[in-house]
Amino acid sequence: MAETTPTPASTPADPGPSAPAASAGAKPAAPRPASAAGASPAGSAAAVKPAAPKPAAKPAETAPSPPQTVTRREFLNYVWGASMALMLVQTVGITVLFALPRFREGEFGGKIRVSTADFPALNAAPTENNLGKFWMVNTDQGIQAIYKVCTHLGCLYFWDDLSKRFACPCHGSQFEYNGKWIAGPAPRDLDRFAFEVLDANDNIIAESPNGKPIPLPANAAAVRVDTGRKTLGDSHF
Ligand code: FES
Question: What is the rounded distance in angstroms from the CA atom of residue 175 to the CA atom of residue 190?
Fold first, then answer.
């Protein structure tokens, strides 16, 4: 009979060279430095590193804005503003036009200068100024410049030397030498112009703002008749 060799009941298996470190003799793993772990240990203020300065942020790239549109309110505001500006310009323009003289001196509607020698002698036949459309008379009360248009319907009347009166050929109105109504359908006396009396240096030495007769001063040299300032004759009704 063969002799058998008894085997031990329980022999720990040989772990071998590749056995894990879980055996009693294995060393614990060394702790990793904090920096390597990526977190600072709690309660250790000295270990906190100052934060590194962040690089300047790049300006954000802006997306192209959509095309601007005018709202209804903005449009109405623009229209209102333009209307106000236009009205202001018109107001200023009209004011300037009215402030400026509309007629220049020497033309009808403006001032017309005549010599005192152009006036007739006292109560002599009137002389006329066609440019200014007036008759020059010299009455006992002084000189006058009488508008040549009839106060009825606007005809040009004439001087009738026989009757010593003004007579209108249209409807027969008649007026005295000083423009007073005598007869006919004309509703009022003849109209007259304002005038200034000037000396040889063109200084104003007398004036008649309502066209009523004033005597000529001894040093009068000229008369400036303002055909833009007409005074209506007195009504006889
Ligand atoms: Fe002179 Fe009629 S227009 S009387």
Answer: 8
